[in-house]
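User: Here's a protein and a ligand (flavin-adenine dinucleotide). What would the complex look like?
Assistant: Let me lay out the input and then the predicted complex.
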Amino acid sequence: MHKILEKRQLSYDKERDQSVFYYKVEAPEIARNRKAGQFIIFQLDEDYGERIPLTIADANAEEGWIAIVFQTVGATTRRFSATFNVGDNVPVLVGPLGKPTHIEKKDGLVLCVGGGIGIAPLHPIVQANHAVGNKVVTIIGARTKDLLFFEDEMRAASDELIIVTDDGSYGRKAVVTAPLTEICEKEKVSEIVSIGPAIMMKFCVAAARPFGVPITTSLNTIMIDGTGMCGCCRVKVGDATKFVCVDGPEFNGYEVDFDNMMQRMTAFKDKEREADHKCRVGLDAGKVSA
Amino acid sequence: MSEFKTTEMLQEEAAKIWAGIEGKTLTPKDRTAIPQQEMPSQEPTVRAHNMSEVALTQARVEAERCIQCGGAPCKKGCPVAVPIPEFIKHIQQGDFKGAVDTIKNTNLLPAICGRVCPQEKQCQSFCTVGKMLKSPEKAVAIGRLERYVADWERANNKITVPTPAPETGKRVAVIGSGPAGLTVAADIRRAGHSVTVFEAFQKTGGVMVYGIPEFRLPKAIVAKEVENLKKMGVEFKTSFLVGRTATLEQLLDSEGFDAAFIGTGAGLPKFLGIEGENLIGVFSANEYLTRSNLMKAYDREHADTPLFEAKRVAVFGGGNVAMDGARTALRLGAEKVYCVYRRTRAEMPARVEEVAHAIEEGVDFHFLENPTKFIGDEKGRLTGVELLNYELGEPDASGRRKPVAIPGTEHVLEIDAAVVALGNESNPLMSQTTEGLNVTKRGNIIVDENQKTSIPRVWAGGDIVLGAATVILAMGEGRRAAASMNEYLAGK
Ligand SMILES: Cc1cc2nc3c(=O)[nH]c(=O)nc-3n(C[C@H](O)[C@H](O)[C@H](O)COP(=O)(O)OP(=O)(O)OC[C@H]3O[C@@H](n4cnc5c(N)ncnc54)[C@H](O)[C@@H]3O)c2cc1C
Ligand SMILES: Cc1cc2nc3c(=O)[nH]c(=O)nc-3n(C[C@H](O)[C@H](O)[C@H](O)COP(=O)(O)OP(=O)(O)OC[C@H]3O[C@@H](n4cnc5c(N)ncnc54)[C@H](O)[C@@H]3O)c2cc1C
Ligand code: SF4
Ligand code: SF4
Ligand code: FES
């Protein structure tokens, strides 16, 4: 049984009518084995529910819980936030899935960049790098102040935290690639980890390229089983086709074909619109201009 | 294919024949003169309401065709050696329960195997009656009889759930709930050991629930088998991915399981490796069928998982998976469904019955053709496939004539969805997360003649060992593994 222990709304985006929610869920088995970078799949109903992947944003093995943070973009995530409250059980929850992030002690600093909802999956990676003694500089960005979350959590796990907003309503008025470039210019950066909308990750890769810094990106393709059985999550990485759920979700950013990935994510767009009965503009936050 | 007859017509004919033979002593010649009975399959819910004497008569008429030959050649064609003449004898005597119990001595899943076994290549291909009539298709319909008695047992609530031997206190982990895993669970539980089945999906049954469609194998039948195992005390843990939720090592060491069986199947879809394969609209058969079967996408009113609506669908491959993909596409509303296969109908590995159904339903077969690339529009959506013509050349290692491309015959077929059904390879998760587990180059787990793996206390069987095979072979491997495991546990 996966009882919901805590539920918090982290932000609300009036423009898109999307919220970000934090749920703490009882899951001792998942909490015990999970590592940074891994995700779960949940369903709201065993028979008819869609299988939705979400990164494990935090966990505690002793207390036996995991935390998920999600944006209400479509039918399932909206229904989840609207109808599931503290004390209810999540009917289906499987994990931890995917390969853990490769964490090791680095000479130079590790630059962690999170945009929009990508801040949630970035959190455990920041924590894990911090735990092995790496110098961690974290950049988090959103369209506007109200959409930011995890500021305190990120600050606690980072040596330095840089906040940017598109409209300048909080932190620096910039897109995430601006501080990224500045830091690469003046410091020895051993690795960049970038998580956010595909378009943001694509621009981070472009920004990192001149410096030759290795960049890891975390992909959020559409999935079904999450165990490597269906191939629906496949993306082109270098010359090979990779399954995000088992080969990833993290890949060398220089090799990912982001355009193909973004196209594939529109596969069911019309259908989902219909299911959601709401017109949405697109994916959230962390919008980056070149 | 024989001309189409309605259920009523078939039953009427059967009744007439029955009236002619009931109570008489038949010579083998009389028996082979009886026409093979179609015994149309129906949904179990429907059948439960019309278990009419007439339907039953058809089964009895069909059973009368068996001449009870000594030596039982048919039995040699069955991978688990079902005592075929014996069970048919019970039907001839009107003892259906006796028949089904006889089958269950070696085949635990007759309702399933009766539906999905490639009988024409197995038991029925050896049947003397078929040989006398010079056509394996005219053999005694062993599979249909098997299905019939198993359905009869279920519909009449006559299933006897075996009572396990007294508790031994030993614990066994079964990984995967496909036919291999379910069989192991049954046999080990019977011996009094406690059994926990771990299944990655939210539902149990493996390919029988996520791959093979409802119209061929009603999910209620699989669910019933699982229910019976639960009654025997087998515990099921769904949404538990061994290797991730807990590793095999953790199960054996910290969780205290005494032994484990790996029956994780061949769940890694093969793609063609050609240009355009990642376009929107190109699916693996696994994805296409899972969306439809497991996630119930066909049920538009209730299901959350979206369906990819396509008007023109091409399925690539010639096996059961391809037939299921093609017939599912028709049911999901495609106007045109093609099946592209690089050899001819004679070489198709699919069950003969499934190919016949697909043709009847209007699937358009493109034999001796193979795709060279997928074509898409500027939005990355599939619009067509380029095909190349083939001819059959010399026989290859498998004895089948090898298809050879005819250069310059490229042509384009307009489609908006493609379903790649070239079979499955082994999912590498278990071997990646289990130190010391030896696998072949293709990722299949290596086992000895008792299904033992390279790791102590761990056995394996089914598709993960055989590569994509069949339900009955998976079950056979499960039985062999369970026997060896029971022996090990008894000596421990
Ligand atoms: C490994 C992984 C980790 C993820 N972690 C998180 C997380 O921590 N927090 C979070 O909020 N989301 C995360 N996602 C994305 C999340 O799975 C999707 O937002 C979710 O599936 C949408 O479901 P829905 O039914 O509410 O919306 P749908 O109705 O299915 O879709 C709504 C809209 O979102 C788009 N969409 C569909 N699937 C995805 C997807 N996988 N990613 C992005 N957009 C999608 C659709 O094209 C559509 O426009 C992750 C995805 C993956 C693969
Ligand atoms: C579309 C299709 C049609 C077919 N038609 C026929 C037919 O007509 N006749 C026939 O005889 N055969 C047919 N087959 C083949 C047959 O279904 C398989 O040979 C058989 O199901 C193999 O059984 P199995 O127990 O080895 O594995 P599977 O049935 O594959 O079951 C394996 C199970 O293990 C689970 N699993 C995998 N990894 C893990 C893990 N790490 N932890 C926990 N659980 C895990 C999977 O989710 C799955 O449920 C067909 C196959 C397909 C795909
Ligand atoms: S299990 Fe399959 S092969 Fe064996 S007798 Fe039954 S139908 Fe024939
Ligand atoms: S070979 Fe055919 S006729 Fe002979 S016993 Fe078997 S089923 Fe009956
Ligand atoms: S989600 Fe099915 S293979 Fe990755």
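Summary: Chain B touches chain A through 43 residues (CB under 8 Å).
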